[in-house]
Specification:
The chain has about 140 residues and is α+β, with helices and mostly antiparallel strands. Helix content is about 15%, strand content about 50%. A hairpin with a 2-residue loop joins strand 8 and strand 9 (about 115-120).
């Protein structure tokens, strides 16, 4: 199985490639008035605006560093009605992949830069925050 590797601060994570719609370079985000805490803004993706969450800001209280390796991972998550919606995850050092089996994470696997923990979008962005993000985008 293929995993996309990234970091939140110094911690390494692996997201199953099947959860990734596309990897984008970091770009300017549009501020959303009344956005919930944790929302970095919205980005134009294939003709529509989608919410973006800075996982470093959410997890560590500081935004992701502005580096060439900072990326936006576009993924799909269910909204309040169970409809799949696009969501951008801003992460650092998203430049490597790892091929291993899910059972190799016990709870960590060894990646090219050290130990990595398997990540699930549901755990990275709690349901209540995802719902608030989509609600904010609906009124923006």
């Amino acid at each position: 199985m293929l995993f996309v590797l990234f970091q939140i601060g110094d911690a390494g994570y692996a997201l199953a490639a099947g959860q990734v719609v596309e990897m984008l370079p970091m770009m300017e985000l549009r501020a959303v008035r009344g956005a919930p805490k944790g929302m970095a803004g919205s980005l134009r993706y294939r003709g529509a605006f989608i919410p973006a969450v800075d996982l470093c800001a959410l997890e560590l209280g500081e935004p992701a560093r502005d580096r060439m390796s900072t990326r936006i991972i576009v993924t799909r998550v269910p909204d309040r009605e169970g409809v799949e919606r696009l969501l951008g995850l801003i992460v650092e050092n998203a430049t490597d992949i790892l091929r291993c089996e899910p059972e190799d994470f016990a709870p960590f696997a060894t990646g090219p830069r050290g130990l990595v923990e398997r990540a699930e979008v549901d755990a990275l962005v709690p349901e209540h925050l995802r719902f608030a993000l989509f609600d904010a985008m609906a009124v923006a």
